[in-house]
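User: Okay, second chain of the day. Same drill as before: sequence in, C-alpha cells out.
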Amino acid sequence: MPKAYSAHAYLTETARARPEIWRLLLGLLLIGVLVSLLNMVFFAVLVGMGPDQWAQELLLGSSPMALLLLLGSFGFITLGVTLAARWFQHRALWSIVGDRRLAVAQFLKVLKSLLILGAIGFLLPPYGLGDELTQNLPFATWVLLFPVAAFAVLIQTSAEEVLFRGYIQQTLAARFKSPVIWMGVPSVLFAAGHYTPDMAGSNALLIAAWALAFGLLTSDLTARAGTLGPAIALHFFNNLIALLFISLPDSLSGLSLFLLPFDTSDADQLRPWLVVDLAVMFVCWLAARVALRR
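Assistant: Same drill. C-alpha cells below.
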C-alpha cells in the first residue's frame, strides 16, 4: 500500500479478520434485497396515500416532499450495510466510518474549506455559462426548507459513501493490496449506478465517466484520511449544489432554487457543464487535501 494511504489500514483493521470475498458478495446481496424490499413497501404505501401524479413525482423527485422522501429512503442503504457488516464480518457501522471524533472533525474541516471555495467561486467571474436560470421555488419557501433538505442530502450522501468508500472499498482492501482493485472496483460500481441511458440518452456514458472520476477522488480522500468524513463532506457539498441550488429540470429538481434551461439528455448544452463540473470537482478534491493537512 502506498505510504500516503497508510491511514487506510485503520479502516481495514476489523475487515481483515474476515476478508473472504464471499462475505462481501453475500453482504451486497443482503443489502440489495433489503433495500429493494424496503423501498417497494415504502413507496407502495406513499403512492397509495397520494393522488395519481404522486407516483411520477416520487420517481423523479420533482416536488419538495417527493425529493425529501426519495433522499430519506437512502437511509435503507445505511441500514443494509450495518446489518451486512454485523452479520458477515462482525463489524459495527462506526468501524466502517472510522474514529467518530476524527471523522466528524475531518468532515467539518473539509466542508468549511469547500464552502469558502464555493463562496469565492460564486463571487468571482465568469458568472455562469451564458444560460439563463429559471426560478424553481420561491426564495422564502426554499429558505424554510433548506435545513431539512440539507439533512436529507446528508442522509443520501452518507449512505452512498458508507456503501462504496466504506463497506466495499474496505473489504476489498482487506483482501487485496493493490489500490487499483480496492479503489477501482467501488468506483466502477458507483459509475454503473449513475448510468441512466433512458433519461440521459447520449450523455449517459459521460455522466457515468464523471461518476467514475468522482468515485476515484473520494476513494483517495478516504485512504488518505483514514475515515469517511472527508469523502462525505465532498459528496455532501457536491450534491448540495446540484440538488438544492441549481438542478436539471427533468430529475431530482424538487428542492432546487434554480433550474437549468436544458435537461439531462441535451448533449450540446449539458456537456460544457460536465467539463466545468469535472474541473470544479478536481479543485474541490485539492482543497479537501489541503484542509486535511492543517
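The chain has one domain: 3-293.

User: Thanks, on to the next one.
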